[in-house]
């Protein structure tokens, strides 16, 4: 009897064990069936999870053959498939099927936007000068006052959503016309020919001495502004090294029909002057030739009126007599009147402490004409 009971108990155990094992093998399938991402022509659409609608706005007018890239819930499938071209002239239905077989239908609408074909140069500026744009001939012309056009940086503006090549802000050699291609948003292009011409400046006259070219500029500027302008002309404020150069410059100034009242230094005895390249802006009393206002310059005088020549340099400071200068003086200049005279002016008509043609130290902020020595 007991043996029968044992066999019955063992049978019941095996039946229960078998049932539990079957139950443990049951797998719950996913019901996720969402479109998580829908991209057309690089534009990601907006997905409305409440209405099951997707909207995409693309920058093309032709929506009849667009290939979408679609991402969906894990373990789900979609029909039509991702990567299959569709005609989106009307909304297209996409069915997402979850792992458990349940489905969700999305309506996808793609709207085409008009693409701009504008491809104009609207503004072209070189060296602060705005050029003239001829949209009919596709030409741009610019008149500049610089003498070197081999390395100029233009600032360019083009139609909205258009691009240009070469780009704005890139230096170019304008010795010959340069072609610029403007590309519209729709990919169409227009080529402009840009010409930069050196404009004749009636305020500038030139002369030569000993194989070098000089320019007399009848535009009143401070010493630093004059030095900067000289650099744009390819030179520096003149640096006088001997009596012959001094005489040649002074003679050219006398022949330049300068109106003295237009280039006056009030602190220089009220006389008329032109800037040369000397200054002691860096260290008071240490006079250097530094006509481009760059670097440390070349010393030529140390001290004030009783100072000394440096490097056996030529000097022509204001003095009691009008004869040839004696490097040992006596000189009346430089005197640094009121402690604010740091730039070298050549006198055109004399002043109480010197004669026409001699040098005086005057305030660098005076606005005077100047002489450029070209490189």
From TrEMBL:
Against SUPFAM superfamilies, the record matches this protein to: C-type lectin-like
* Pfam families hit by this protein: DUF5018 (PF16410), Lectin_C (PF00059)
C-type lectin domain: residues covered: 209-373
Xref: InterPro entries: C-type_lectin-like, C-type_lectin-like/link_sf, Ca-Dep_Lectins_ImmuneDev, CTDL_fold, DUF5018
* PANTHER family, per database record: C-TYPE LECTIN DOMAIN-CONTAINING PROTEIN, LITHOSTATHINE
Q: What is this protein called?
A: C-type lectin domain-containing protein
């Amino acid at each position: 009897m007991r043996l029968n009971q044992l066999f019955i108990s063992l049978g019941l155990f095996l039946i229960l064990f078998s049932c539990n094992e079957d139950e443990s093998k049951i797998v719950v399938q996913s019901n996720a069936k969402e479109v998580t991402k829908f991209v057309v022509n690089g534009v990601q659409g907006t997905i409305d999870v409440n209405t099951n609608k997707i909207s995409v706005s693309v920058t093309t007018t032709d929506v009849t053959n667009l290939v979408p890239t679609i991402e969906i819930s894990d373990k789900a499938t979609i029909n039509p498939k991702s990567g299959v071209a569709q005609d989106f002239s009307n909304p297209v239905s996409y069915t997402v099927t979850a792992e458990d077989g349940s489905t969700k239908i999305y309506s996808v609408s793609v709207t085409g936007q008009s693409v701009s074909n504008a491809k104009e140069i609207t503004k072209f500026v070189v060296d602060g000068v705005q050029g003239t744009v001829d949209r009919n001939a596709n030409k741009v012309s610019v008149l500049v006052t610089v003498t070197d056009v081999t390395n100029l940086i233009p600032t360019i503006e083009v139609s909205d959503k258009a691009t240009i090549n070469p780009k704005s802000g890139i230096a170019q050699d304008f010795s010959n016309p340069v072609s610029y291609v403007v590309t519209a948003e729709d990919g169409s292009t227009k080529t402009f020919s840009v010409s930069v011409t050196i404009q004749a400046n009636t305020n500038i006259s030139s002369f030569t001495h000993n194989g070098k070219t000089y320019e007399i500029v009848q535009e009143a500027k401070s010493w630093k502004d004059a030095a900067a302008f000289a650099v744009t002309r390819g030179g520096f404020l003149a640096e006088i090294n001997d009596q012959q150069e001094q005489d040649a410059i002074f003679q050219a100034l006398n022949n330049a029909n300068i109106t003295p009242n237009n280039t006056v230094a009030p602190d220089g005895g009220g006389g008329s002057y032109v800037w040369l390249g000397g200054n002691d802006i860096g260290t008071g009393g240490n006079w250097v030739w530094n006509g481009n206002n760059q670097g440390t310059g070349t010393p030529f005088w140390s001290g004030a009126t009783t100072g000394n020549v440096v490097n056996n340099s030529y000097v022509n400071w204001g003095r009691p007599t009008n004869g040839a200068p004696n490097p040992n003086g006596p000189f009346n200049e430089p005197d640094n009147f009121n402690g604010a005279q740091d730039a070298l002016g050549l006198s055109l008509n004399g002043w109480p402490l010197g004669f026409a043609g001699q040098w005086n130290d005057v305030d660098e902020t005076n606005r005077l004409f100047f002489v450029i020595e070209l490189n």
